[in-house]
Amino acid sequence: MLVNYHTPRHVYIVCGNTDLRKGIDTLTILIADNFGLNLYDGSLFLFCGRRNDRFRVLYWDGEGFILLYKRFDNGRLTWPRNSEEVKELDSQQ
After folding, report:
1. In the chain, which ranges are continuous DSSP H helix?
2. DSSP 3-state assignment of 27?
3. Sign of dihedral through CA atoms 31, 1, 92, 42?
4. Alpha-carbon dihedral of residues 30, 32, 35, 39, nearest 10 degrees?
5. Are 54 and 18 in contact (CB under 8 A)?
6. What does the pLDDT look like over 27-60, one tens digit per residue?
7. How many CA atoms, within 13 angstroms, populate the side-chain half-sphere of residue 75?
8. By the number of CB atoms within 10 A of the CB, which of 12, 40, 63, 87 ranks highest?
9. E-strand stretches of the chain
């Protein structure tokens, strides 16, 4: 059930603010409807809240979705806020 961070096919950063109260079902609808991406291909999807000190990761492990949540005690993330800046990172680099 643990995520092997060396095997994701892609890492997608969802730019802008995401309401981190959203659960798996709502986040999967957001990805499928807004971006048309395949949720079941082993990709990681990253979402950041308004405060920039916490984020969520959605991952399909082959049996079900895993939703990870991280909150920093000190510091904040630099997160792209413009929806036109959605970037796909090659996990091989």
Report:
1. 24-35
2. helix
3. negative
4. 110
5. no
6. 999 999 988 899 998 899 999 988 889 999 999 9
7. 6
8. 12
9. 10-17, 44-48, 54-60, 65-71, 87-90
